[in-house]
Amino acid sequence: MKIKIIVTFLFLINLSFAQQVLDKIVAVVDNEIILQSELDFQAIMFASQRQIDPNTPGLKQQILNSLIEEKLIYAQAELDSIIVTEDEIDQRIDYQIKVLTQQLGSVANIEKQYGMSIDRIRRELRDDVKKNVMVQRLQEKNFGNLTVTYPELEEFFNTYKDSLGMIPEKVTIYHIFQNPKASERIKKTFKERALAILDSIKAGADFSELAKKYSEDPGSASAGGDLGFVKKGVFYPEFESVAFRLKEGELSEVVETPVGYHIIQLLERRGESIHTRHILIKVKADENADLQTIEFLTAVRDSISKGFGSFEDYAKKYSEDKETAVFGGELGTFYRNQLDKPLLDAIGKLKQGEISFPRRLEYAPGTYGYHIVYLKFRVPEHKASMELDFDELKRLATEYKRQREYQKWISELKQKIYWEVRI
After folding, report:
1. Strand partners, 278
2. According to the model, what pLDDT value does residue 22 have?
3. CATH assignment of 167-182+286-383?
4. Which fold has domain 184-282?
5. What pLDDT does 239 receive?
6. For the chain, what is the largest distance between any 2 Cα atoms, rounded to a whole number of angstroms?
7. Of 76, 83, 102, 303, which residue has the fewest beta carbons closer than 10 angstroms?
């Protein structure tokens, strides 16, 4: 459709860069301007992400065209009275802050990185986030439901089938996943550790220092357990049911979630968002729990192989991957080169219809389980086919149609909205 300029708040907060550039206006679109510093910055970020030279001939012109298109769409969004609520803006900013917190480790690190308070960062983001949401909303309104008819799909296929090349091998895979269950004896040991830390805090020990020393949450421990501002829906329900009931400054008792035991303190409440910190003591299963999980999954595999039930039925009943269990354990259909190494290793030697033996699966640092993988379909590398690749061809044909309609729309906007390039 156009060059995708990745506009996250990481790239919007470029004040120090802008201050080093003698700015000038390079384009005007309706009531908006595009500065040389903005164009240069976007070129540097775009080139950095793709590991190319930012001075590649034609690159800045392409990026400038993309920026002009975005501002044309924003101008039309204003004309169409596209409404974005304050709550939507807050949610988008909260999400962006959450992502950056995960990347940099803490809110304090964000403030240090950008040389301003988190509140100021939010204010700096607000106008750009609103504009971005309005642009996306109008694009979705015009093109979100656009699709192709079967005759259009046939025409696309007949026109481009020779240029589509070979379609890589495709596989459809399912799995049944289980976490090793720690015994009550083991769980009691870790809970007692959390209770001892809680007693130390109540006795006057510094929460932040204990979090840095003992918390096993890698995303917040170095920041004294600080989790920043979040709304409901981010943390485990067990965590939130306690955290959102706390008063400012209040300390929770030990709270159990699927990842372990937490000590939570509410630092501040702002509207529907809360600012908390926590100390996490993870519950680590022993070797016996691992063995029991492997034996259970092996028994499930044997039962399915002997015809005592379908893989989908067992997945719905026993898989602890809740997102896929309701769909019978279906992970999806992938090209072989899209699979990460653990899944590739799991299905590498399987024939269509076979189930792997239990394999360890690490889904977060220090957090793992075991799963069996079912290779339901395997389609070898082949020339594009309406029969074998219908969904993918439909997606490509739809995207092609959207690109054509989008370019027609942009041409229309350029006829009705004032714009000018000044370089």
Report:
1. 264
2. 55
3. 3.10.50.40
4. Chitinase A; domain 3 (3.10.50)
5. 95
6. 76
7. 83
**pLDDT higher for 258 or 275?**
275
Q: What is the 3-state secondary structure (H, E, C) of the chain?
A: CCCCCCCCHHHHCCHHHHHCCCCCEEEEECCEEEEHHHHHHHHHHHHHHHCCCCCCCCHHHHHHHHHHHHHHHHHHHHHCCCCCCHHHHHHHHHHHHHHHHHHHCCHHHHHHHHCCCHHHHHHHHHHHHHHHHHHHHHHHHHHCCCCCCHHHHHHHHHHHHHHCCEECCEEEEEEEEECCCCCHHHHHHHHHHHHHHHHHHHCCCCHHHHHHHHCCCCCCHHHCCEEEEECCCCCCHHHHHHHCCCCCCCECCCEEECCEEEEEEEEEEECCEEEEEEEEEECCCCHHHHHHHHHHHHHHHHHHHCCCCCHHHHHHHHCCCHHHHCCCCEEEEEEHHHCCHHHHHHHCCCCCCCECCCEEEEEECCEEEEEEEEEEEEECCEECCCCCCHHHHHHHHHHHHHHHHHHHHHHHHHHHCCEEECC
Between CA 289 and CA 240 the distance in angstroms is 28
Q: How far is CA 398 from CA 264, 382, 392, 408, 411, in A?
A: 49, 22, 10, 15, 20
Domain boundaries, the chain: 9-146+402-421, 167-182+286-383, 184-282
Residue-wise pLDDT tens digits, 359-399 = 999 876 667 899 999 999 999 999 999 998 999 899 999 99
Residues 6+ apart with CB under 8 A from 95: none
User: Token match 């509140």: residue?
Assistant: 119
372 DSSP β-pair partners = 176
Give the architecture (CATH level 2) of 9-146+402-421: Orthogonal Bundle (1.10)
On the 0-12 / 13-18 / 19+ scale of CB atoms within 10 A, 165 is exposed
Q: Do 277 and 211 meet the contact criterion of CB atoms below 8 Å apart?
A: yes
Question: Same fold for the domain at 9-146+402-421 and the one at 184-282?
Answer: no
The answer to whether 255 and 238 have CB atoms below 8 angstroms apart is yes
Give the tens place of pLDDT for each residue, 82-128. 999 998 998 898 888 888 887 777 788 888 888 888 888 888 889 88
Whole-Å CA distances, 303 to 143, 295, 299, 309, 369: 48, 12, 6, 7, 21
* Per-residue pLDDT reduced to its tens digit, 155-171: 999 999 989 889 999 99
Closest CA to 299 of 376, 355, 369: 355
